[in-house]
Every structure is written in structure tokens, then in C-alpha cells.
Design brief:
single chain; 11 strands; six-stranded mixed beta sheet; D-Maltodextrin-Binding Protein, domain 2
Length: 372
């Protein structure tokens, strides 16, 4: 039989051992190994798009509490911009930041996430279709058919992109014919049908090509990126509004094997960081693009609205392009059908419900507005 003194002593020893074990476990958690993933964007380091990639990485890093760290390199640091998808799939890079249209050469259907009028959907509606209308499953189907070991997150609805920068402004459809023009994705086919000679240059090569006269006109994306890339240094005419890329968004790529190796709670952080970065990017784009639009005007850039006949010619060229692609690519038609069904429903709702904000803007700031 054990006396009370011995039992008390044993309980004290066990309690002490438990406390010691608990104390030993604390530094083990604090010093848990950090998983570092190396990403590359498809943008030059000075571009606001590269900044968006860094913003996403920072959100993940801040929330992961040392368990995951994403490092973002600029375009060309490891592979050229248009080779990002293969590099991530093979594990040369752990992830990347770009746009789906850059993968157009792999399967023409990939350009439908960004190129063209998207049946009248704005960029945020395209993301709604992707996340809730079947687009995500279709994109996964395409990547799987290409044997690409990647997980794709779409986010960040881009504002409508300008028709582009022109050495001479265009006033009619005939003015587009013969122009050496830069664009990407299915917009290559659209502008080709409109008579231009297209060269799908990466972002960092556009302005030097314009400066040397290798191309006559080019589109990239927005006031901030265009200003940072140096467009106003070589061209002074910018045509606003276009259907060639009116509903585009960004893509965050992960090597699927690397992503699946992360703990479930860390993968959840990635999921929610994508959503947070999407909202933050939208707000930042409004702030920065509007500021840089003013700065471009100060720099002597003249802005013109793209004439309606050119916009209608784009729609006609788009219809011809997608009809041709769908004949030879079943998944292309599948994506179109999915987009069209969603756009018809969501577009009617948005067009019927949304008030004309331009009316209110003109009331306060347009010609004849009362001065306060």
C-alpha cells in the first residue's frame, strides 16, 4: 500500500513533468519550419500589376503567421512572361501571377477568360460567372486536358481596357487596316480580321517597339500601367473604350502538388487572401488609374473615345472569330454556352437594376452643372 506522502510526491512529479513538457512544446511551435514558395509575375517590377502580385503575397504572408511565405519575382527573373504556366506546372516555379489569355496558345478557349465582349458582361460579372456559373470547373477541365499540374485562382476584375495608343488617332474602321498593332489572346484574331498586322509582344517590349517604329499602335491595359511603362514618352494619342478586353481578370497560379502539400488551414488562408486581394485591387485600381489619367493629360496625351463604328466592327469580328474557333474546339463552344447562359440572366438583372451613374456625374460635374 502506498502512503499519502508517497502518493503526493508522485503526483507532484507527474505535474512537474507535464509542466516541463508543456514548456518544451512552446518553442517547437514557435520555431515551426516556414514553407517558402517562389512566385514570378508576368509583369515588370515597376508595373502596378506586379504590385498587385506583391499585395496578394503580403496578405498570405501576414495571415499565415510564419507558416507560409510567398516571394514574388518580376517577369523574366526565372522564365519569360509567356512561359509562366509551364514553369509552374513543372515545379520550376511554385506559383505565378498573370492572365489566362497569355495561355491562348495552349488552347484557344483559355482566351475566353478576358478577351472579347463576354456577351455584355463587365469584369466583375465575368468573375461571378467563373466562381458561381461554371467557369471554374471549365478552366480546371482545360488545364487537366493539357496535363498541367496547376491550381488556378481568378481574381481582380480589370477596368475596361483602352483600344490603345496610336501614333495617329483612328476615326473609322478603314484607319485600322494595315496598322502594325500589339495585342494578345483572342484579340489577336479580332484585330487581324479588322485588317491590322498583330504582334503579341509581352508588356515590357511594347514601348521600345513603338519607339523604334516596329509597331504603329498598341494596347496594354490602364492609365497607371501605361504611364509607368512609358507610353506617353513615345506616343501622344490614346483611344479609350474597346470590346477587345472589356471583362478581363488576373490569375494566381499554384503548382498543384505544392499547394496540396500545405495544411488545410493554410490553404484556407490562400483562398481567402485571393478574395481579399480581389477587392483591394479593385479599390486601388480606381484610386491609381484616376490619378494617372490626370497625369497623362498633364503630360500632353490626347484622349479620344473610340468611334462607335469601330466598336461595332469589333463585335462583328468577334462573332466571326468565336464561330471559327468553336468549329474545331469542342471545349471552346462549351465555355461560350456557359458564358452566354449566365450573361443573359445576370446581364438583364444588372441592366434593369443599375441606375445611370453618368447622369448623376454630369449633374454635378458636367457642362451646365451648378457651381457650388
Amino acid at each position: 500500500m502506498t502512503d499519502k506522502k508517497t502518493a503526493t510526491s508522485r503526483r507532484g512529479m507527474l505535474k512537474g513533468a507535464a509542466v516541463a513538457a508543456g514548456a518544451m512544446s512552446v518553442p517547437m511551435i514557435a520555431t515551426a519550419q516556414t514553407t517558402t514558395l517562389r512566385f514570378q509575375s508576368t509583369w515588370p517590377s515597376k508595373d502596378i500589376f506586379h504590385e498587385y502580385a506583391q499585395d496578394f503575397a503580403k496578405k498570405v504572408n501576414d495571415m499565415a503567421g510564419g507558416r507560409l511565405k510567398i516571394e514574388v519575382l518580376p517577369s523574366g527573373a526565372v522564365v519569360p512572361a509567356f512561359q509562366l504556366l509551364e514553369a509552374v506546372a513543372k515545379g520550376t516555379l511554385d506559383g505565378g501571377h498573370g492572365v489566362v489569355a497569355y495561355h491562348y496558345g495552349k488552347n484557344s478557349a483559355l482566351a475566353l477568360w478576358g478577351s472579347g465582349p463576354a456577351y455584355g458582361m463587365d469584369p466583375n460579372m465575368v468573375l461571378a460567372w467563373h466562381n458561381y456559373g461554371g467557369g471554374k470547373a471549365l478552366l480546371e477541365e482545360i488545364y487537366t486536358s493539357l496535363n498541367l499540374d496547376v491550381t488556378s485562382y481568378l481574381y481582380g476584375p480589370m477596368p475596361t481596357q483602352p483600344l490603345g495608343w496610336f501614333k495617329k488617332p483612328v476615326a473609322k474602321v478603314a484607319d485600322m487596316k494595315g496598322l502594325k498593332f500589339r495585342t494578345v489572346g483572342l484579340a489577336v484574331d479580332v484585330f487581324t480580321k479588322m485588317g491590322t498586322a498583330v504582334n503579341p509582344l509581352p508588356g515590357g517590349e511594347i514601348v521600345p517597339a513603338l519607339d523604334r517604329g516596329l509597331i504603329d499602335a498598341a494596347e496594354f491595359n490602364n492609365a497607371t500601367s501605361d504611364r509607368l511603362l512609358g507610353f506617353p514618352d513615345v506616343v501622344k494619342n490614346c483611344m479609350l473604350q474597346s470590346f477587345h478586353q472589356s471583362g478581363e481578370q488576373f490569375e494566381i497560379l499554384f503548382n498543384k502538388t505544392k499547394l496540396n502539400a500545405l495544411p488545410a488551414e493554410v490553404k484556407a488562408i490562400v483562398d481567402y487572401a485571393v478574395q481579399a486581394a480581389s477587392a483591394d485591387m479593385s479599390w486601388k485600381a480606381i484610386q491609381r488609374n484616376s490619378q494617372d489619367y490626370i497625369e497623362l493629360k498633364k503630360a500632353g496625351v490626347k484622349f479620344y473615345k473610340t468611334p462607335d463604328p469601330i466598336l461595332r466592327a469589333q463585335l462583328t469580328a468577334w462573332d466571326e472569330t468565336i464561330a471559327e474557333k468553336a468549329k474545331t474546339n469542342p471545349i471552346f463552344q462549351k465555355v461560350l454556352d456557359s458564358q452566354k447562359a449566365f450573361a443573359q440572366r445576370a446581364g438583364q438583372w444588372q441592366n434593369d437594376y443599375m441606375v445611370d451613374f453618368k447622369m448623376a456625374y454630369n449633374h454635378y460635374f458636367g457642362k451646365g452643372a451648378k457651381k457650388s
